[in-house]
Amino acid sequence: MKPTIYITRKIPDEALQILEEECNVKMWDKEDQPVPREVLVKETREVDGLFCLLTEAIDKEIIENASHLKVVSNMAVGYDNIDVETASQKNIMVTNTPGVLTETTADLTFALLMSTARRLIESSNYLRAGKWSTWSPMQLTGQDIHGAKLGIIGLGRIGQALAKRAKGFDMEVYYYNRSRKPKIEEELGLQYASLEELLSDSDFISILTPYTAETHHLIGEKELQLMKSSACLINTSRGGIVNEDALYSALKQKKIWAAGLDVFDEEPVSLNHPLLELSNVVTLPHIGSASIATRKKMAAVAAEDLLLGLKGETPKHLVN
Length: 320
Ligand code: NAP
What we know:
There is one protein chain. By secondary structure, this protein is α/β, with parallel strands linked by helices. It is built from 12 helices and 12 strands. A 7-stranded parallel sheet has the order 8-7-6-9-10-11-12, sandwiched between helices. Strands 2-1-3-4-5 form a 5-stranded parallel sheet. Helix 11 links the parallel strand 10 (about 230-235) and strand 11. NADP nicotinamide-adenine-dinucleotide phosphate binds next to helix 5 and helix 7.
């Protein structure tokens, strides 16, 4: 008998086809609306496999309710939306999609760094608002990227891909990571720094750790105080790593120069969020991995791993 799976959003056709060949598929088929919680609880009760996105909290309630569940396949590299501990206790496999999105997310991170440094969104809005009356020496001036110091917090796959891009811009690259990586330091020409050193010396700070209990509010008031008044903070990891209230105060009081944010504590971020009032913040709706090719690859990787797990084999990207 074919296993039954639930897919929490309309996914690319190629991945859906792979799954439909081998499973009885039920899918929340709306592209722009997440599955309502009560539907998710109901639909997962009897399934063998779950294909989900970071928009769904796969928590204790869902996992304990789903008595047949064997595999949860998350179409993302981060899996902080899943209660992995409870899944492990129930012998449920959890998988993610590392690697295929590394370069695309590093591209976006560098693009966000550049947009923030050179005030691209603000400048475009300035022009469209009819404020461009003349060229003037200090109009819309930003920070230089070439030759600047970049501090990467979390030198994993994306952190390393970002470091390579930064080297192409003649940046001096520092990193802080929970484990030091001498081989990569040598290969890429990077310097290790303590978190405090990195925060106080960098012109640009990019956060690329996963979101865990240890990284929750890793950047708060104390850390922001250490940064240069000309510093730009770039977060393309997860919103909860930065204390948003502290960030708002630091930006408002010009203790740091600007921030580029692809991620927020609560997503979608409310239009009333104070950070959205500030002109020195570039905001994006969590599009780090959003290239057509990469999203298709992520869906295919998640589908393949879901099938492997359902067949009793070990998925390629098992996190527990
Ligand atoms: P990765 O290869 O696992 O890299 C994470 C790095 O963070 C590792 O080097 C790890 O150190 C380090 N780290 C973990 N906990 C730490 C801590 N407490 N303090 C310091 N360093 C710590 O992951 P990745 O593929 O680069 O992805 C990184 C994160 O980016 C994901 O978890 C996800 O949240 C986010 N992401 C966002 C988007 C987006 O759309 N904006 C897209 C993709 C990914 P070790 O080497 O010691 O393990």
